[in-house]
């Protein structure tokens, strides 16, 4: 009887210890929404000339975010809609172009928690253009603006890194991103572009 009681007590302690271990290592999933602003720049490289005077543009982002946490480590995917507007000029030429871009961003970031509330994040990011357009003016050849269709053919792939602070169910994030792949575009000018920028956002987890 004593041996049976000792075995039962040992089994209870073992179950409690294993439950605590499972609770610590079991993933915790949270889903939320976020919105913010983009500060974005493009380096256009045309087949005949380059756009060197490019004014960085601002835009907005809105979408969903998820957080799968394994103790201090985690995976943070997002699905975002982004809109950006920029203006560019060609040096030593009477050429200017307004570019407006709408795209879907899919960053998949790996994160590590520090200080109990701050998460450092880094990982790949992907983009899919949904709409591109703008107006293009060539003053030497025409006296009025003509509509230019910017067709980004290849979805760019890049990297993103930043920090995410969380208080209760809210989070505030700052992030730098850069696309290494150069997406081709066609319009008045044919060539390639390289993109980079910053994102600032605020979110809420349900």
Protein architecture, described:
This protein is mostly beta strands and 206 residues long. Helix content is 12%, strand content 65%. The chain has one domain: Porin (Beta Barrel). It contains one helix and twelve strands, in the order αββββββββββββ. It has an eight-stranded antiparallel beta barrel with strand order 1-3-4-5-6-9-10-12. The N and C termini lie far apart (51 Å). The mean pLDDT is 76.
Summarize it.
The chain is mainly beta and 206 residues long. The chain has one helix and twelve strands; from the N terminus they run H-E-E-E-E-E-E-E-E-E-E-E-E. The chain has a single domain, classed as Porin.
SSE blueprint:
Blueprint: H1 2-25, E1 28-46, E2 53-55, E3 57-70, E4 73-89, E5 95-114, E6 118-133, E7 135-138, E8 146-147, E9 157-167, E10 170-179, E11 183-185, E12 191-205
Antiparallel strand pairs: 1-3, 1-12, 2-4, 3-4, 4-5, 5-6, 5-7, 6-9, 7-8, 9-10, 10-12, 11-12
Features:
206 residues; mainly beta; Porin; 12 strands; 12% helix; elongated
CATH architecture: Beta Barrel
Count of domain modules: 1
Q: Share of helix among residues?
A: 10-25%
Q: Kindly identify the CATH topology.
A: Porin
Class by SSE composition: mainly beta
Instruction: Give the helices and strands as they follow along the chain.
Output: HEEEEEEEEEEEE
The CATH class designation is Mainly Beta
User: Helical segment tally?
Assistant: 1
Average pLDDT across residues?
76
Distance between the termini: 51 Å
- Characterize the largest beta sheet: strand count, sense, and whether it forms a barrel: 8 strands, antiparallel, barrel
Strand order, biggest sheet?
A: 1-3-4-5-6-9-10-12
The outline comes out as elongated
Structure summary, number of beta strands: 12
Beta content comes to: over 45%
Uncertain runs are none
